[in-house]
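ZP: hey, is the geranylgeranyl diphosphate complex queued? I don't see it on the tracker
AM: it wasn't, my bad. submitting now with these inputs:
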Amino acid sequence: MGAILSDPFPIDSYLATVAARVEAWTEALLAARAPQGPAGLWAALRYALLGGGKRLRPALVLASAEARGGDVSEGSLATRFALALELVHTYSLVHDDLPAMDDDDLRRGRPTVHRAHGEATAILVGDGLQSLAFSHLLASDDPRAGRLARLLADDALRMVLGQARDLDGEHAALSELEVMELMRNKTGALVACAVAGGALCADADPAEAWPVGMKLGLAFQIADDLLDVTGDTATLGKRAGKDAAAGKATLPRLLGVPEARRRAERLLGEALAALEGLGPRAEALRALARFVLSRGK
Ligand code: GRG
């Protein structure tokens, strides 16, 4: 962790810049679409989209494209894909928080969407976000948009499969391998999608980038599970200690905190090694990879 703490890359300001860009794209999307109404649904969509969030997935898309010499300027395909991915991610959080799923009342330090806007509206917010994501991406006349949409659809489906496994209530019986498979689907797929999609936007091979993103996605989920054990609700902006309360099988619960941390560090090391060959242009991507483990929320 020493190298992580002394990271000279200004990751906080990089993420703040990405967050500001994501928020500006979101405002533009809402301004174009919300006038069609109904006002209540669009207010809830705004609440879901502009309530904070680290914007890690869009940052990974842009950094992965940049690392391979891709265009990440305003209006580029990479920016369109980055927003589409964040819309899908936001839909997953809104639906995951519903009473029928994790039944959470706190997300990003505020009441969850169903708490603030009602359950039926929260279901529609998730549905609407998914449609908006593909509509926004496919509004591009870039011929690569179709491949990106397929990538996003396939990884979003993997997330749904992971969520189904997570909900099926047999956690006590899950082996380490089964927990890893669950994490690969539930969390890893969208993070891998970010890194692979960024590569595709730079005309590099997404199939080569995807497994590196998967390592980061797994490290990200282990870090999340560690924070659930070691973090507090105020810092996390969501309830801490939920996994143990729900009897969920996570790596920290299965292997203990120190071993789970070692696994996450190993995954990060493997991802960083795979990114080494990309040279100085990949500095932001490598810093984001380190942030996956060093983050406090
Ligand atoms: C409902 C189809 C469906 C899927 C839900 C994303 C998800 C799958 C569940 C959310 C709960 C959870 C612990 C998911 C694992 C991935 C994860 C840690 C998501 C939170 O992502 P962050 O930390 O969130 O990037 P912010 O708020 O920063 O955007």
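AM: back. The mean pLDDT is 94.
ZP: great, adding it to the tracker
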